[in-house]
Amino acid sequence: MIQDPITRNPAAELWPAPTAQSPVQATLTVPGSKSLTNRYLVLAALSDGPSRLRAPLHSRDSALMIAALRRLGAQIEEAGGEGAFGPDLLVTPIEAGKPVAATSVDCGLAGTVMRFVPPLAALVPGTVRFDGDPHARNRPMGPVLEALSALGVRLSDDGGSAPTALPFTVHGAGSLRGGYLALDASASSQFVSALLLAAPRFAEGLHLEHIGKPVPSLEHIAMTVRVLREAGVVVDDSVPSHWIVSPGPIRAFDVQVEQDLSNAGPFLAAALVSHGTVRIPGWPEGTSQVGDSWRQILQQFGAEVTLQDGVLSVTGGPQIRGVELADTSELAPTVAALCALAEGPSRLSGIAHLRGHETDRLAALAAEINGLGGDVEETADGLLIRPRPLRAGVFHSYADHRMATAGAILGLAVPGILVEDIATTAKTMPEFPQLWHRMLEH
Ligand SMILES: O=C(O)C1=C[C@@H](OP(=O)(O)O)[C@@H](O)[C@H](O)C1
Ligand SMILES: C=C(OP(=O)(O)O)C(=O)O
């Protein structure tokens, strides 16, 4: 597991986080889901005809995915249907067998790009070098590279040896046989998703088995299986830790992208912190997004939560209750911010793999909340967060969008919090500062 030193950006601006002067009363929607947008883009690039994404996310992570797929030969254009958060996307797939000139892919800090795109590069004849932001080189990548290598793909690092992390080069032969493959996905569910998304295009499909400690963020693998099935791919996930993808075409599609329920989290949290009400219309029914679990999580914190006619309504109680929660996946930084404002102690477990996210999130949350006077202790697989009054100060973001939004949540209750590098929210929600201020205007 990655234990890299925490890095800070001294040049970034300090954003005065607004305090909630009164209970928030807001109705709002948020931009499209990162996880769905980037999965649909990958599938569209591999599909059997042109596809359309309606109301997709437009952010740094989706822009990086679009640029990567274009490098592999997909054509992606913006098209009418201008929604509240930007235009639709039209995708013409990569032409099977068409070589690409030696090229490069910038992964930024996007896990979906660095994990999902290399298997596609293996399916394209050509040489593709992958790199990203400085911290991206620390994010776990090994199992995906080992898996590709086991499938017969030639890979090299800049010195020509077998790579274990970014930067690396995929020497695509244009086709993959597939078959049985074992991998350890305990550091990231994205290792599994990466191989499943490309697997219908392997000559024999793929039987993938996870061997190791439990896989985190299982909801994200379920999302992958679901989008594959929606595109006509046969996937058998009936045996835990096994996924069998049959070879076959990926049907082109026209899809409405759901709003990002994980990114809805900080806004819903504002209802608890300010003892107000936040409503989100268009809450998708029967969604595969992990953020749907806000409905249960926020109730445990003491909120009243209703979902009626597609409108999610969250009303904060008189106090925020402490919680015990396991594997909250990408929701954890928002959850931790609420815990720091709770009346009782909280324990978050099953999130050791957050040490390999945009930053070491366990270390970063402990350092920043404690830096404001809080009481957070790291455990082997999570955080213990005890109530203690917080004070004004700088909350560092570590280039992590969810750290920045965690700082904004604390700022609602604690005057004088300065969030360093709020612009890093552009990774998945460039509109965050504007939407946050708008939420507080009433
Ligand atoms: O597949 C995806 O879209 C994601 C999977 C999860 O990754 P991990 O399994 O590494 O937590 C999640 O945290 C990330 O934000 C998005
Ligand atoms: C872990 C996250 O992102 P990524 O897709 O880069 O892994 C996240 O958004 O919380």
From TrEMBL:
It is found in: Cytoplasm. GO terms for molecular function: 3-phosphoshikimate 1-carboxyvinyltransferase activity. Keywords: Amino-acid biosynthesis, Aromatic amino acid biosynthesis, Cytoplasm, Transferase. Gene3D superfamilies: Enolpyruvate transferase domain (3.65.10.10). Residues 19-434 form the Enolpyruvate transferase domain. It catalyses: 3-phosphoshikimate + phosphoenolpyruvate = 5-O-(1-carboxyvinyl)-3-phosphoshikimate + phosphate. It is an enzyme of class 2 (transferase). 3-phosphoshikimate binds at residues 34-35, 39, 188-190, 217, 330, 357. The active site is at residue 330. Its main location: cytoplasm. Its EC number is 2.5.1.19. Belongs to the EPSP synthase family. NCBIfam families: aroA (TIGR01356). Catalyzes the transfer of the enolpyruvyl moiety of phosphoenolpyruvate (PEP) to the 5-hydroxyl of shikimate-3-phosphate (S3P) to produce enolpyruvyl shikimate-3-phosphate and inorganic phosphate. This is 3-phosphoshikimate 1-carboxyvinyltransferase. It comes from Arthrobacter russicus.
